[in-house]
Amino acid sequence: MTAPADNPENLLETLLSTIETQIVPLTTKGVSSGSKLFGAAILRKDDLSAVTIHCIQQFFSSPDTTSSPRPATRDCIFVTTHEPCSLCLSGITWSGFDNFYHLFTYEDSRDRFGIPYDIEILQEVFRVRAVEGVHESDESLARRPLYNRRNKFFTAKSFADLVGEMTGGEKVKRKWRGEIERVKGLYDGLSGTYQEGKSQGVASASVWK
Ligand SMILES: [Zn+2]
Q1: Which Gene3D superfamilies match (predicted)?
Q2: Is the pLDDT of residue 18 over 60?
Q3: From the CA of 118, how far away is ligand 1's center (Å)?
């Protein structure tokens, strides 16, 4: 039996609408009062319904009763607006989620949001130059992925990766790439408000996500 999450088109449609209809409105309210731009949601794998919007802590403080048990992390899909920072990568791993899907990549965070720290921290703290042989060149070091997107704990995919998995042909893929860009565009205005707030010294919860 195939679950709704096994169909990349189905899944992407739900991920995009979760961001557009649930996360963006919350973020819009938050950003104007100085909070961060980053959002997340947790969905059930079986029917793609939302369990919580916002974060891991909220998920674990949601009611877990016999009549309405909280789903196990293994049975959930983790959706984030931005590719998770090193701290959140660990949080997702330790909580037992076996997946996450992100709209924006680290490069987007750097280039569209002016936030280079995700890349910098992974490069500076976690990446070790290979010691085998004599010396790993800067070029070879730079080509290495910043983390294992497929590992024994989780599989990470961008929304664009899901488009790559679609079998519907180029027309279908083009439609979904357009949808991804449209939803990314919803953040353009928000990013402006966020950066303005930072430069005006509005107390931001943190620059990290
Ligand atoms: Zn984070």
Answers
A1: Cytidine Deaminase, domain 2
A2: yes
A3: 8
- Taking the centre of ligand 1 as the mean of its atom positions, its distance from the CA of residue 120, in whole angstroms, is 13
Tell me how far the alpha carbon of residue 30 lies from the centroid of ligand 1, in angstroms.
Answer: 17
Confidence at 202, pLDDT banded by 50, 70, 90: very low
Residue 208 covered by a domain: no
> What are the phi and psi torsion angles at 57 (to 5°)?
-60, -40
Domain count, the chain: 1
pLDDT tens track for 30-53: 777 766 788 899 999 999 998 887
Q: How far is the CA of 77 from the centre of ligand 1 (A)?
A: 17
CATH number for 36: 3.40.140
Range of the domain at 17: 4-63+71-198
CA–CA gap between residue 156 and residue 152 (Å, rounded): 11
The Cα–Cα gap between 180 and 16 comes to: 7
Residue 50 is predicted with a pLDDT of: 86
Gap from CA of 46 to ligand 1 centroid (Å)? 26
Q: What's the 3-state SS for 21-46?
A: HHHHHHHHHHHHCCCCCCCEEEEECC
Whether residue 209 is contained in a domain is answered as no
- Whether 206 maps to a domain, the answer reads no
Alpha carbon of 168 to ligand 1 centroid (Å): 34
CA of 56 to the centre of ligand 1 (A): 11
Residue 203 located in a structural domain: no
pLDDT greater than 50 at residue 203: no
- The bridge status of strand 76-82 relative to strand 99-104 is parallel
